Amino acid sequence: MNWFVLGLAGLVEIAWAQSIKPTQNFTRPLPTLLSLALMAVAVWLLSYAMRTLPVGTAYAVFTGIGAVGAIALGIVVHKDPLSAGRLIALTLIVAGIVLARVTSPE
Asked: Which residues, in sequence order, are CB contacts of 89 under 8 Å at separation 6+?
């Protein structure tokens, strides 16, 4: 169950990362409130998952999911460039997340 919550926290982190730019340096009130709310939910879900998961593993998986999602959305939505190096980096991050999951006690 806590691995599911951790995955959900990672997805909320992706949404949070995408919500930062529309705040325009936190000068727009509604986008800023949305961004802060997403941040709070992501951290709350992470802390909930850490009740039984090792802190280091949970945080690494959380940030890994966020990084992969942010890069993927950047490529798909914002037309960020895709290179062999970025693909290799994404593959390594995903492999690290999978390895952390399969080797971590719950």
From this structure: 71
Cα–Cα distance, 93 to 90 (Å, whole number): 5
Q: What whole-number distance in Å separates Cα of residue 68 and Cα of residue 52?
A: 24
Which two tokens mark 6?
């951790």
Distance CA(70)–CA(19), nearest Å, equals 11
- The tens digit of pLDDT for each residue in 5-52 reads 999 999 999 999 999 999 999 999 999 999 999 999 999 999 999 999
Q: Is-above-0.70 flag for pTM?
A: yes
Token pair 């949970």: residue: 58
Token pair recorded at residue 81: 């460039």
